[in-house]
Amino acid sequence: MRFIHTEVGRERSFIDTITDPKVLTAHIVGSEPQVRRRKYDIMNVSMLDKICAREYVIGYLLNQERTEQIGFPMQTIFNMGSALHSWIQNHPEVYFGRNKFLGNWRCLGCNRQRRFGTKPITNCEFCDASYRATVYDEYLFRTPAVSGKIDGILNVGGKYRIPDIKTTAKDIEYPNGSDIIQLASYMYFSHPRFCGDELPVEIDRSVGYLIYFNKVFNFRAPVKTFKIEPTAKLMEPIIAKTVAFTKGKAQGILPNPLKKCVVKSFVIKTCPMADKCAEFHFEERTTLPVPE
Ligand code: SF4
Ligand SMILES: [Zn+2]
Q1: Cα–Cα distance between 158 and 156 in angstroms, integer?
Q2: With a 6 A CB cut-off, is 165 part of the ligand 1 pocket?
Q3: For residue 239, what are the domain limits?
């Protein structure tokens, strides 16, 4: 290992003077904030309880975009959650049981979707790549108003139910309200009248599971599962939002502004459509032209 003994790299740069681990992380591991741009053409189910239908209708009709900057810490939290999700979904023999976890499976050799069902244990029928190159592919459903990806489908005593895998750093005592709404929305929109016949099994929409995997070592309860039975009342505001968005897209009808925004005189930093929202409110406009 001759190069170890050379003088190359011995000259101390600015980075070599840093000793604080946090500052060193920022220089060695950290990256630029990621910019996410999102059109207002569809509502994501994972955000349905927070979304304002008026913002989406205005954004869609005016062909606007929502831009979000995601800094390094948040990006890291998201990535850790995604990595854990992916590991769980690709190892049904460790969690749930090989014959109990169903979904779509994609071959990385030919990038084709192999089939819906349990994890394949044979080589790809299209390109003969090893079954080890087959990965879980989250099922995407899309209606004119909403889209979402479900974490998988569980066969529970012959009934097909939707789980929603969550990663947490807290010891969860009861499920989070927005997680319940998210799972209930997946269950609601998994009906064939929204998904067509794309989902090859009939979902039992009366029960779903919120499964919290704890990222902090917790021997007593590393995973906690909550049974969720959504009620019509829980779904009412979510359905109202999607109906308002569908009508807005098709007929240009503006939903009413949220009371809290009127009270705050439309000074809402988190809403990119706030100025337009205020303008239309004070002009008493109830519709906008629908784009061709
Ligand atoms: S200002 Fe409030 S009511 Fe108006 S679009 Fe934004 S979030 Fe919705
Ligand atoms: Zn293949």
Answers
A1: 5
A2: no
A3: 45-255
Per the domain annotation, does 74 fall within a domain?
yes
Give SS3 for 48: coil
Per-residue confidence (pLDDT) for residue 255, from 0 to 100: 97
Question: How many other C-beta atoms are found inside a 10 Å radius of the C-beta of residue 80?
Answer: 13
132 lies in a domain? yes
Residues 136, 106: Cα–Cα separation, whole Å: 6
Ligand 1 atom nearest to CA at 53 = 8
Any ligand 1 atom below 6 A from CB of 273:
yes
In a domain, 23, yes or no: no
Question: Residue 277 CA: which ligand 1 atom is closest?
Answer: 4
Least confident of 154-163, 196-205, 237-246, 254-263: 196-205
Question: 142 CA to middle of ligand 2, Å?
Answer: 26
In this structure, are residues 44 and 145 in contact, taking their beta carbons and an 8 Å threshold? no
- CATH at 58: 3.90.320
Is this prediction's pTM over 0.85? yes
Q: Judge whether residue 36 has pLDDT over 60.
A: yes
Task: Please give the pLDDT value at position 8.
Answer: 57
Is 210 a domain residue? yes
- Quote the percentage of the chain above a pLDDT of 70: 96
| pLDDT confidence bin for 107, thresholds 50/70/90 | very high
Does residue 53 have its Cβ closer than 6 Å to ligand 1? no
Say yes or no: CB of residue 277 within 6 Å of ligand 1.
yes
Domain count, the chain: 1
In 55-152, the DSSP E strands lie at 65-70, 101-107, 113-117, 134-137, 139-142, 146-150
Q: Which ligand is nearest to the CA of 129?
A: 2
